[in-house]
Amino acid sequence: MRITNLCLQLSRMLPIVLVGLLCATLFAAERPAVSMAGLPSHREAFISDTTDSPQSTAKDSLPAIPANSPDTTLIDSIPADTLAVAVQDSVFDDEFELEDIVEYEAQDSIVLLGQNRAYLFGKSYVSYQQSRLEANFMYLNTDSSTVYTHYVLDSVGYPTAFPQFKDGEQSFEAKSFTYNFRTEKGIINGVITQQGEGYLTAEKTKKMKDNIMFMQGGRYTTCDHHDHPHFYINLSKAKVHPEKDIVTGPVNLVIADMPLPIGLPFGYFPFSSKYSSGILMPTYGEDSRYGFYLRNGGYYFAFSDYVDLALRGEIFSLGSWGLSAQSQYKKRYKFSGSFEANYLVSKSGDKFVPGDYNKTTSFNVRWTHSQDPKANPLQTLSANVNFATGSYFQNSINTTYNVDARTATTRSSAVSYSRKFPGTPFSITGSMDISQNMRDSTVSLTLPNLSISMSTRYPFRRRTRVGPERWYEKLSVGYSGQLRNTILTKEKDLLNSNLVRDWKNGMRHTVPVSLTVPILDYINLTLGFNYNEWWYTKGIRRAWNEEKKAFLPSDTTYKFHRLYDYSLSAGLSTTLYGMFKPWKPFSLGGNLIMIRHRFTPSISFSYTPDFTKPRYGFWEYLEQTDQSGMLHTLLYSPFSEQVFGAPSQGNAGAINFAFDNNLEAKIKSKSDSTGIKKISLIDQFSWSTSYNMFADSIRWSNITASLALRFSKDFTLRLSGLFDPYLTKYYYGADGKVVPYKSNDLRIANGKGLARLISTGTSFSYTLNKESLTKLLGLFGGGDKDKKKDNNPPPPSSGNNEDAEATEEAQSEGGSLLTRNRQGGVVDENGYFKFDIPWSLSFDYSWNIAMDYNRYNLTKMEYDYRTMQNLSFRGHIQPTPNWTLSFNANYSFDIKKITSLTCNITRDMHCWAISASFIPIGAYKSYSFVISVKSSLLQDLKWQENNRPVANTWY
């Protein structure tokens, strides 16, 4: 009975037990998903990469894994990159939860619910708040929120798709990475990150929660060959604050895998994404003239985002020293510019040797300023200043090897300001102009140079015109005024000059009035009146000097003087066209269709009164009889040496002739869509002269002619010439010397031709390179063939598309750091490497021939000619992508030799650069050799050897 009752009681409790077991089973089945959301768990995750190959990640399924077996899916085929780390979640307890959702996505993912693990294949990412991890293979442990990832192999066995991690502003790549999203800590193998201009790599790294990384076996380099850099600074251990600094233990320099005995007990590498103030480290070296030196050391001031300042100094062991200041400023859409000032005290020679010691003080000021055209359309300020004392470029080491800077004879500077006044026709322009002659240290300074101008006005034009324009409405009036204050003196006397006594100043006003009226619809009649007025504050009068036997300046009057002149003019001009169809024998086989001639003649008359008459008071006539009874006369103006000169002397009634010609042709062309092409035979041929009716002799002026021939679209040959229509004769002076003079006899009347050449010349420059040479060869029939070849479509590409996409991604900007340097050379459409040697050869040539007024031929009764030629040429060739050779030379036709030659050789060694420069001939023979790191961050890591230019010396 008891057994029966016991069975009855058990039968009643069985449904309750079954229901409990079912609930427990369901709870256990749903626990992995709940754990990923952040419920408490005490499970331990064990991650191993000692099994299976990463190549298996390309498959779409996984074999079944026993519940209690270790992870056998993450084998790394490269033994050096294996990792076996047991991660104990020591900070995970029942009260810790994730603050946000962990998102992940992959092209193919498998979640094993029974094991609380997920495998992601293909392009995948895991994201949590600001942290994001991207790779092509990932393994997640959902209990501990831990992720493990490493690279995969492509179809040819190259590692690719390296894991990339980003947390806020910090980012890096690695070969393998284990990371916990809860603790924000991780272990990294083969990490690489860019810090500043360099790259930081390490064999093993521990990432902390605040993004600080502790590295072991690190390397810092600016070479992007990360696996095998050409040089690096070996870091035994380091602590990295991303984008801030690196603090290291003992460091040493390694070049070409060779450790050098150059090291430090510790290292500090600061980084900053923002520019900031700081110390500028000096460079050291030796100069044959000034001794050992420390140069370019100082302090950099980062005032704001718009302006900065760098103060530098230099000191030499023989006593020389210098200071410099450089500043750059820029405000977007407003203005930009730079300023530089240099002060140098040079000491050379021995104080105890008479005549050997020399001390000079020199300075240089440079300023450039430009305004954005959109900033203010009504006013503009621009500056281009390069002012220096005559000795600066000879003493400064910065220009030691700059032949152009040392041999320049003139320098000019200008600061200009212009202003328009809306609603009025007036505008104003003010400038300061400086011109220096470096040979004799003379300075020409104009301050201010003020100009006021009024746009052309039509006073009789109707505001609302009805009907055709009337002839008097074409009357125009203009105005321009100029105020100038200038001085010509030596550099040393400039600051001591007197504004009233030494400076020349004055103001000029010009009022032109013109009227253009058409006659018979084809001829334009132009009438003009021009009025000029000068204002001066002083005049220089002359008197007879018995000792010098000449009229010399004797007195300067300081008062207001008003001078003026005026002139009248009238002219006729028209344009004529002529068409000519060549005969068949001269039509070049029928290709020459038509020739057009455009002829533009003009004739004008101008009249200017004689302002030397006493009623004007602008000129004075002096007479003086010396002690020998000889009469001396002089017609002069007290204002002829002023800034704008004086009114002209003598009546001038000139008839001006000018003729302009243009010759063009139409030819058949297959390259033109119309079948006809227009070419220029003579782009311009013009000449002009004038006849002065009021002159008592030599009424014809010199003939001016110009010719322009366009040989191609990019090259036009221009010639200009001056011709004399009169004969040249001579007489014997009191000292028995021959004195040539221009006679009043026309050459054409004496059978000597129309005129004799006085001077002519031309200049042109041309650059010959591969492209221009191809164009020249195309003129001989090669152009169409090349064009047809270029029109052929490239053959279709073949190969693995995935590999092509990976290569394209690696070569693109911002691609993987670990795969960026695997690209090869440039290939053509057929897959062959392109063999291209960039080169260029440029030359500038000028040729002039003119009468030599120091050589008069008594037999021909003519001046002999003097020919002047100048040739400068420069070349550049790049035989390989890393080698570059260039030169710059000048040739003198007078001495028939090269006067200057500068040669440069550079070798790009990826992260290093070698440059050699030498001047083998001339007065500045020298050489320079430098090998240095290309990055500006390590600019002091270099070796250089040079000598100072010394005349007649070559090493």
In what range is the share of β-strand residues?
over 45%
Computed over alpha carbons, the radius of gyration is: 44 Å
User: Could you name the ranges where pLDDT drops below 50 across 5 or more consecutive residues?
Assistant: 21-96, 782-814, 951-955
What is the 3D shape? elongated
Number of helices: 5
Helix content: under 10%
Major beta sheet summary: 29 strands, antiparallel
Q: How many β-strand stretches?
A: 52
Give the rounded overall mean pLDDT.
Answer: 79
N- to C-terminal separation?
Answer: 127 Å
* Broad structural category: mainly beta
Description:
With 955 residues, the chain is mostly beta strands. It has five helices and 52 strands. The strands form six sheets. The chain has a 29-stranded antiparallel beta sheet that branches. The longest helix is centred in the first third of the chain and has 35 residues. The chain is elongated.
